[in-house]
Write a structure and sequence with these properties.
Layout lengths: L1 E7 L5 E8 L1 E6 L8 E6 L4 E6 L7 E5 L3 E5 L20 E7 L2 H5 L2 E2 L16 E4 L32 E2 L8 E18 L9 E8 L4 E5 L7 E20 L10 E11 L2
Antiparallel strand pairs: 1-2, 1-4, 3-8, 4-7, 5-6, 5-8, 9-16, 10-12, 11-16, 12-15, 12-16, 13-14, 13-15
Length: 266
């Protein structure tokens, strides 16, 4: 399968590109400019790719239902960034996109992980959205819960980014897989900067098959796992978040990571 990888500016002018079979790499030796983006063009639709568009971010297995994907170079225009300080910085850049192997696709894994998720719907999965994000700050964006970073004893700037619900009682988060997958275990890592943080005692998980599961949570720094009967879904939602109401806790429950163990279907 031919993979075309391009770096383009805000006017869609091509700055660098290459096309190779199954694995394509490009390097770029200038500073990125606001509006620059990577574009991946594929021969086929419905492909699994392993992408790494910056050495500071972990490679991710993603699913592309169509034959085109764009990734806008992130520029932190806010006070604090949710990315490592060296991500997409400097003048020496490396980007690699390759076709995932069969073993990489079918192995039991965290199907939620995507270090290259974006707040906008950009045609790559898994993808997270939410109806609330604290003050619209990137360190509290929903996508932070699938970025693969597990530091949860602080809040705010990297590496303590999380999903902040802006104190909304109706806060809801959706994890969309973009295709049907088989899942068998969930993991929830709460942000645990106590006493600054509160926590949820109960979370409802709504599955795309219209079933629901209530998860009871504890005040802990550890990942809280729950096994579930194996099921096929294309999305899950977290809703009906019940905050602990003891007086000594604050008003700020938050989610650091959401883990969904399972397998892809070929």
């Amino acid at each position: 399968m031919k993979i075309k990888l391009s770096l383009k500016d805000s006017n869609s002018k091509t700055l660098m590109e290459d096309t190779q079979e199954n694995l394509t790499v490009i390097t770029f030796n200038k500073r990125y400019q606001l509006g620059d983006f990577y574009e991946v063009e594929l021969e086929k639709i419905s492909c699994y790719l392993v992408v790494q568009l910056d050495p500071a971010l972990k490679p991710a297995l993603i699913y592309i239902p169509n034959n085109n994907w764009k990734y806008k170079i992130p520029f932190s225009l806010q006070r604090y960034s949710a990315l490592p300080s060296n991500a997409f910085e400097g003048v020496d850049h490396y980007a690699c996109v390759r076709k995932a192997t069969r073993d990489e696709v079918i192995q039991n894994q965290n199907l939620a992980f995507n270090s290259y998720d974006q707040r906008c719907d950009n045609g790559a999965f898994p993808h997270v959205t939410a109806n609330a994000e604290t003050r619209g700050e990137e360190v509290f964006f929903a996508k932070n819960v699938i970025d693969g970073y597990f530091a949860n004893t602080g809040y705010g700037r990297f590496p303590y980014q999380s999903w902040g619900i802006d104190q909304r009682k109706d806060a809801e988060l959706k994890l969309d897989f973009g295709r049907e997958v088989i899942i068998n275990r969930l993991g929830i890592l709460l942000r645990a900067d106590y006493l600054h943080d509160s926590y949820w005692t109960e979370v409802n998980v709504e599955f795309s098959d219209k079933t629901n599961l209530k998860i009871h949570l504890k005040k802990t720094k550890k990942i809280q796992y729950v096994s579930i009967p194996e099921k096929r879904v294309n999305f899950i939602k977290l809703n009906n978040l019940v905050k602990d109401e003891t007086k000594e806790d604050s008003s700020f429950p938050s989610l650091t990571q959401l883990i969904v163990q399972g397998k892809n279907i070929l």
